[in-house]
Amino acid sequence: MTEKLQHLENIIREYGRVIVGYSGGVDSTLVSFIAHRVLGPEALIVLARTETIIQEDVELARRIARDHGFNYREITYNELEIEQYAANPINRCYFCKQELYAQLKIIAKEENIPFVLDGSNVDDVGDYRPGRTAAKESNVRSPLIEASMTKQDVRAAAKFYGLPNADKPAAPCLSSRIPYGTHIDRKSLEQIALAEKFIRGKGFTNVRVRHFQDTAKIEVDAWAVEKLKQMNVEVESHLKQLGYAEVIIDEAGFQSGKLNKGIVKE
Asked: Stretch 24-53: mean pLDDT, rounded?
């Protein structure tokens, strides 16, 4: 791990001046932390606040940036104004990242910063990630991939440096709960966010509320499904107050990227 971290530091140091696309997730946090560590104020850490990111993640990102003294900035824009994104095609993430990188490149041009970095790791290369195409088109650099770091490596490094989100579960944007082809609107995103916040508040870690219009299908870790069933009456009542007509507990349990199943990769 020490050798990998030294390699990562050397890679980022050679960039000289960078912007890091920061989300508060463990991957982009590690890149931001190392960039700040080796480049100081020459590393600009930028959080994009949109309607698809939950407020708890924004607050965590802010706290980490403040505690470590990042050269930090926030930008805000409306993803739902991107027509191709709101239509929710199977390559939705491409349009999300395309807009993000366009926003970051505007700042890079204004500040004369030559490199934009993201938090992609080696494990992302083999997954269905349309956003990677957007990154390549925008010449975004991925230092974790260049340093051959996996998700496990990233978490180990975050623990080594004492970062508070070392064990934080993956938190893809709220739109990932809506099946491809179903139009994304603000009301649905708010409904999902409130439902998941309520369930997390009951002591569950990995929570997904898959949004099938008026039906909510809840995923929690497989070992916690029985615990959720014991709270079914309370959970169902609350989610119906949020506007769902039917609430279903997924017996198979949580599985990241479940709505990506069936997509044929070229």
From this structure: 96
- Domains of the chain, earliest start first: 2-160 (3.40.50.620), 174-260 (3.30.70.2210)
Contacts with 85 (C-beta within 8 Å, 6 or more apart), sequence order:
79, 92, 95, 96, 99, 175, 184
pLDDT band per the 50, 70, 90 thresholds, residue 263: low
Q: 130 is written with which tokens?
A: 């349309």
Q: At what angle do helices 130-137 and 92-111 cross, to 10 degrees?
A: 30
Burial 153-192 (b: 16+ CB within 10 A, else e): bbbebbeeeebebbebeebebbbbbbebeeebeeebbebb
Q: In the prediction, which pLDDT does 266 show? A: 44
Please state the pTM of the whole predicted model: 0.91
Q: What is the pLDDT of residue 2?
A: 84
* pLDDT (mean) for 58-76: 97
- Give the Å distances, CA to CA, from 56 to 24, 162, 174: 10, 20, 13
Alpha-carbon span 187 to 194, nearest angstrom: 11
Pairing of strands 207-212, 215-220: antiparallel
